């Protein structure tokens, strides 16, 4: 039986287990043996893997996280790790690999193919940030915006009762997709995203205008990567991960203080953090993950290596993984314009 490997890398997100389940079931139907590589690229460096049979994926569809574990390990950080990746791929006896991840994990896949280390890789786009190019949606995003929307709903009732401003900081790294979509769905009064620098005077004016209309509370949604016109991104610490990313976070705190100072309205800050990545995937993400997983096995069977499964409208297509990882997909300004219609 030919063996296909699957790994999940980068930040976890709801929908990973549906992908794994679909790959195993489709693989079984097509006569492949599926090997689960543990903890992303780290597992291929260390030769840490497990055989995935039908029993091992039974019941995982509604579970958040990933049964394979994940890491932010970059094998390109150390020359000797690349050789280990190559050796372990061969030792496990793989004929193909399905890499499930975002720009970092899939970026490594593209490099491995280009360098001739492992050529038979296909990609599956994952991230709550929805910032991968060439696909309308990544799985995990829908769950994240549903969680964030529910949180905004809950914050609405307390903001209204106390006549307060509540600033809600959401994730999304350098793209404002979560802020924009959860903000629209949750009826936020101001939505601030990394794509448009924050003008604090404008934000305060919008809130004042709303209060002058008789509203005694406001909800401001801010993406963690948003920054002030005159400043740069706010980070939690200087340390970078193996892919050179800083840890974002803290803009909500600064923004809240500025709003209170300028408007005099009592303000509270709520940082949603990893809650957005946890728990059971929505039906949308379970279905998208399942469709992606099935198509990924088909791509391996068709030997369409270097391709990434993607969603275009409601169709599952495949795209060049190199193109998909070249540049971040930032917020569609037509969508943001819709959000703006409801500001203030
Ligand atoms: O990429 C997903 C994401 O949740 C980002 O939105 C966030 O900036 C980052 O990961 C947080 O990473 P970590 O889980 O390593 O703190």
Shape: elongated
Domain count: the total is: 2
| Secondary structure: helix percent | 25-40%
Number of helices: 11
Tell me about this structure.
It contains eleven helices and 13 strands. With 344 residues, it is of the alpha/beta class. The protein has two domains: 181 residues, Rossmann fold, CATH 3.40.50.450; 136 residues, Phosphofructokinase domain (Rossmann fold, 3-Layer(aba) Sandwich). Strands 3-2-1-4-5 form a five-stranded mixed sheet, with helices on both faces. Strands 7-8-6-11 form a four-stranded parallel sheet, with helices on both faces. The chain has a two-stranded antiparallel ribbon with strand order 9-10. Helix 5 crosses helix 6. It binds 6-O-phosphono-beta-D-fructofuranose (F6P). 6-O-phosphono-beta-D-fructofuranose binds next to strand 10.
């Amino acid at each position: 039986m030919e063996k296909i490997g699957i790994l999940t890398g980068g930040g976890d997100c709801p929908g990973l287990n549906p992908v794994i389940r679909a790959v195993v079931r489709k693989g079984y139907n097509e006569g492949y043996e599926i090997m689960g590589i543990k903890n992303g690229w780290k597992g291929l460096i260390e030769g840490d893997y497990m055989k995935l049979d039908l029993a091992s994926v039974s019941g995982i569809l509604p579970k958040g996280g990933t049964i394979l574990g994940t890491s932010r390990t970059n094998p390109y950080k150390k020359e000797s790790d690349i050789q280990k990746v190559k050796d372990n791929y061969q030792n496990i006896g793989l004929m193909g690999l399905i890499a499930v991840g975002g720009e970092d994990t899939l970026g490594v896949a593209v490099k491995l193919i280009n360098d001739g280390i492992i050529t038979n890789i296909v990609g599956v786009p994952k991230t709550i940030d929805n910032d991968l190019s060439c696909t309308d949606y990544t799985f995990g995003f829908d769950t994240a915006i549903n969680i964030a929307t529910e949180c905004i709903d809950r914050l609405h009732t307390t903001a209204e009762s106390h006549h307060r401003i509540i600033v809600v900081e959401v994730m999304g790294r350098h793209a404002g997709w979560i802020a924009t979509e959860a903000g629209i769905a949750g009826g936020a009064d101001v939505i601030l995203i990394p794509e448009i620098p924050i003008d604090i005077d404008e934000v305060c004016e919008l809130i004042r205008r709303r209060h002058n209309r008789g509203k005694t509370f406001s909800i401001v949604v801010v993406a963690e990567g948003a920054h002030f016109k005159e400043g740069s991104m706010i980070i939690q610490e200087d340390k970078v991960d193996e892919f050179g990313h800083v840890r974002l976070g803290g803009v909500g705190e600064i923004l809240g203080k500025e709003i209170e100072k300028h408007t005099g309205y009592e303000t509270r800050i709520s940082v949603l953090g990893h809650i957005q990545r946890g728990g059971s995937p929505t039906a949308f993400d379970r279905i998208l993950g399942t469709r992606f997983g099935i198509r990924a096995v088909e791509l391996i069977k068709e030997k369409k290596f270097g391709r990434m499964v993607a969603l275009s409208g409601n169709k599952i297509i495949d795209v060049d993984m190199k193109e998909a990882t070249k540049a971040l997909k930032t917020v569609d300004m037509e969508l943001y314009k819709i959000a703006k219609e409801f500001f203030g």
